Amino acid sequence: MNEQTIKVLRKLKDSTGNYIWQPSVTVGQPDTILNRPYVTSVYAPALAANQKPIAFGDFSYYWIGATCS
Description:
This protein is largely without helices or strands. It is 10% helix and 9% strand.
């Protein structure tokens, strides 16, 4: 997701009234969304109608490769 999406998510709360975005309380640890670290990218699409600007999940089992020609 991009930084603009983070700004929106920082205002959202879960069903118990807790914010879904939480700042890190330990040096060297990332901020989290729903207790999971996240990564931002300037290439991620902005929030808009009919867009999917967030890829959320455990991607540790995936290998992303590129081919060079």
